[in-house]
Amino acid sequence: MSLSVTLRVWRQAGPGKPGQFVDYPAKDLNPNMSFLEMLDVVNDELTLKGEEPIAFAHDCREGICGTCSLVINGKPHGPQQGVASCQTYMRSFRDGDLIVVEPFRARPFPVIKDLITDRSAFDRIQQAGGFITARTGSAPEANALPVPKGDADLAMDAAQCIGCGACVAACKNASAMLFVAAKVSHLGLMPQGQAERDRRVLAMVETMDGLGFGGCVNQYECSAACPKLISHDFIARLNGDYRRAVFRAAFKPVAAGE
Ligand code: SF4
Ligand code: FES
After folding, report:
1. Which of 37, 148, 183, 251 lies 20 to 30 Å from 155 when distance is taken between CA atoms?
2. For a substitution probing ligand 1, which of 68, 69, 120, 161 has the most ligand atoms within 8 Å of its CB?
3. Which residue's CA lies nearest to atom 1 of ligand 1?
4. H helices of 29-165, where?
5. Local structure of 175: helix, strand or coil
6. Which residues pair with 29 in a beta bridge?
């Protein structure tokens, strides 16, 4: 059984250029093809007709890299929960559907072309503090550095974040707090992340604010749109870490000569 749909796609020639929706028919599709494969088919047809193919970002196509970034029918990453755009399949739609496809909409993620946005703002937040300086060397013996099971599990949950930006696109305030919370918590829960714990959260939050992301509005659209189902509980953890870091920075002992 095949299905045919109409795509209403945001076309924009470049950064700062005016954009508009353009309709394209997508006919006789295999329901088991992925959404990106469907776009490949449409692009092949456009190319054969001598028209400009639809620009969209992708890399791994298996929910790992966070590159795909489509808003499908108003939802970042589409209608299904817990999957990235590349893991959305045409069987999620019905024959005859009109499917609206847009780029992530947030001021810190300007459109580069069509469905591709510049999400390098996330790189700058990561560069501000999303690292450790402890020498990790080769893999240590598993029990050499005990980590409580609860902390290890939580750190693994936070480490699932693929940096896609759907949390920002889903938030009416374009908040990046779920992303920052995941990155801060992932490292802050591990012994190796303690040395820079305060410096990390202060620098990442300051960078996030400086880049124009808004604050959390406590409606949790972020975690609903997150392909890795990162819990908004991590935002509460981020707020706690941030408050403690601000407090400790205010009462930091001053060394002689400073
Ligand atoms: S928290 Fe979720 S939605 Fe936000 S960047 Fe990470 S994986 Fe993407
Ligand atoms: S293309 Fe890598 S997560 Fe979708």
Report:
1. 251
2. 161
3. 179
4. 35-48, 120-129, 149-159
5. strand
6. 3
What gap in Å lies between CA 136 and CA 159, rounded to an integer? 17
Pick the residue whose CA is nearest to atom 2 on ligand 1. 226
Mode of pairing for the β-strands spanning 70-72 and 3-12: unpaired
Mean pLDDT of 134-159: 88
Q: How many CB atoms lie within 10 A of CB 75?
A: 18
Query: What is the mean predicted confidence (pLDDT) over 87-94?
Result: 97
Q: For residue 89, what pLDDT is reported?
A: 97
- Using 50, 70 and 90 to split pLDDT, how confident is the model at 257? low
Task: Give the CA count within 13 Å in the CB-facing half-sphere of 255.
Answer: 1
How is residue 29 written in tokens?
Answer: 């599709």
Nearest atom, ligand 2, residue 59 CA: 1
With a 6 Å cutoff on the Cβ, whether 165 touches ligand 1 is yes
Q: How far, in Å, is the centroid of ligand 2 from the Cα of 66?
A: 5
Q: What is the 3-state secondary structure (H, E, C) of 182-194?
A: HHHHHHHCCHHHC
Give the pLDDT confidence score for residue 144 in this predicted structure: 81
User: Which atom in ligand 1 lies closest to the alpha carbon of residue 165?
Assistant: 5
DSSP string spanning 106-139? Answer: -TTS-EEETTEE--HHHHHHHHHH----S---SP
Query: Which residue's structure tokens are 């937040």?
Result: 125
In this model, does residue 258 exceed pLDDT 90? no
Whether 39 lines ligand 2, by a CB cut-off of 6 Å, is no
- pLDDT at site 255: 65
What pTM was computed for the model? 0.94
Phi-psi region of 162 (alpha: psi -120 to 50; beta: other; left: phi over 0): alpha
